[in-house]
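Replying to the earlier thread about multi-chain prediction with a worked example.

Input:
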Amino acid sequence: MKNAIRISCSRHNLKVVRDFVSTYLAAYDLSDLHLNQIILAVDEVVANLIIHANHEDESQFLELRVTVEQQVFEIEIEDDSVSSYKPSLYREPDLQEHIRTGKKGGVGMTLVNRIMDRVEFTTTGTHNVCRLYKRLA
Amino acid sequence: MKITQQTTENTLTLSLDGELDASSSVLLDTELTKPEVLDYRKVLIDCQRLNYISSAGLGVFISHLQRFQDANVKLVFFNMQEKVHNVFEILGLDTLMTIVPSEAEATAI
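Result:
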């Protein structure tokens, strides 16, 4: 089973990533809801990296690798963008305020943080790695 | 993502078919931005064939809600799959938006 994929930074590849995660997890008999949550968390991080970190530059690539060990799903997402995500700057959104001001973005990482058991971002030089963990059972 | 429109005198129904992500949500945003949308009293979103929604899709609805409210246009979702409803729930959006089980209930609002 394929456990790694490399994609260019085009938002059209979001569907490719979702299908990749879905196919990998098909062997684990997850509920629709649980599977959808994991796919969503990965999609949110990948969308941020494609759109915000790499500005949809299709000459840039993301590398994704998934494993399941002892019933814990882990995905590593690597890129080489200069503008790395800084979790320390994360703030819980005020949705009433988003609605009042008509704000479109800013809730993706909230979904990721609420869905996954652990979220890590590390940067070495310009090499960034995001790791997401979720217990499957 | 395919969006089908159906209109009556007071109601615009948009049926969403497919996956609403950071790529396809642009299409929905274009539809909801059209000024004529505010000519209706209600905009119903049929989610029966909506198989997936990410924050980008949610963001489109969040960004238009106040504009709809200011124009006295009700935005109502119906026929939502459980896994899609769950995404609204994770953020608490299910309490800020009107989501009903069926088209009959959406029409009755």
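The radius of gyration of chain A is 15 Å.

Feel free to reuse this layout for your own posts.
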